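Translate structure to sequence.
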């Protein structure tokens, strides 16, 4: 990283003016990289981040920057996005009433950025999805709903079904996997082992192969525990990494299929409520997204 001042430079010949662009301004609340701040704060800026840097359409404390600078608390960040970038949808509402809101987010949008967008509507953060995982995420809209939703997730009364594309043919079409997950905070990843280890947490991941495409398969995955990167790390551990996963995946095959985001979708969400939200008990919400390879011309 570098500071905003050291990263600023004369505008290149191809620089386009900010005329006709939307201006959005935010203030950093803590020290972090510009990329992380953008991912967590401004979805349109996150989608367009590469172009914004390339054309110096981000200013930090009034100075144009062209690299991923490091921000300090209190720094003012201004983005200049095009009408097309602003028009890009970064979520759809699947269900909403006076108590809960269930949104359907595409890959590329962080849970934090979605929460930031819905915060003005009273949304309370309950659980998260990885930035590059698409699908359903639930928010509470009042204190009572927040308590019930948190209890439902904690007590495993929120059934989450995922869809994934996984590499290599499966020998077993259905299995319930037991493993032990250990976080490596420094490397921002997790490690899976087949036997208990000090500091590792037990995980249970159930999968069913729905369709075989030869080099990869469409798999339905049911979580019986919900830990960081559980699906991605556990499937990679058994030799079937999720297609497009750059952290735990198969680099050569990802390059072959030209995918850089995991083909993983939080597809269905069903709750078992006993309290004030019991009217939603047994109701299943379904994401509009599917685990699939993008069209050849859209792969990146």
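Result:
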């Amino acid at each position: 990283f570098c500071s905003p001042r050291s990263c600023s430079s004369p505008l290149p010949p191809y620089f386009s003016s900010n005329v006709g662009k939307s201006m959005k301004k935010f203030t950093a609340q803590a020290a972090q990289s510009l990329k992380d701040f953008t991912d967590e704060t401004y979805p349109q800026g996150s989608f367009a981040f590469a172009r914004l840097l390339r054309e110096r359409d981000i200013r930090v404390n009034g100075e144009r920057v062209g690299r991923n600078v490091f921000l300090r608390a209190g720094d003012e960040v201004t983005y200049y996005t095009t009408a097309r970038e602003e028009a890009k949808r970064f979520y759809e509402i699947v269900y909403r009433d006076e108590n809960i809101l269930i949104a359907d987010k595409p890959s590329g949008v962080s849970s934090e950025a979605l929460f930031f967008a819905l915060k003005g509507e009273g949304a309370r953060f309950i659980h998260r999805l990885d930035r590059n995982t698409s699908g359903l995420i639930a928010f509470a809209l009042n204190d009572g709903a927040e308590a019930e939703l948190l209890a439902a997730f904690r007590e495993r009364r929120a059934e989450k079904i995922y869809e994934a594309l996984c590499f290599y043919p499966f020998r077993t079409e259905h299995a319930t996997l037991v493993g032990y997950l250990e976080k490596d905070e420094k490397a921002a990843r997790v490690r899976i082992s087949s036997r208990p280890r000090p500091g590792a947490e037990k995980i249970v991941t159930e999968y069913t192969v729905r369709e075989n495409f030869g080099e990869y398969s469409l798999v339905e995955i049911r979580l019986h525990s919900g830990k960081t990167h559980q699906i991605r790390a556990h499937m990679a551990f058994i030799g079937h990494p999720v297609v497009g996963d750059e952290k735990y995946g198969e680099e050569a095959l990802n390059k072959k299929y030209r995918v850089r985001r995991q083909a993983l979708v939080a597809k269905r969400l069903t709750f078992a409520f006993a309290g004030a939200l019991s009217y939603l008990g047994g109701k299943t919400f379904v994401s509009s997204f599917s685990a699939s390879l993008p069209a050849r011309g859209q792969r990146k």
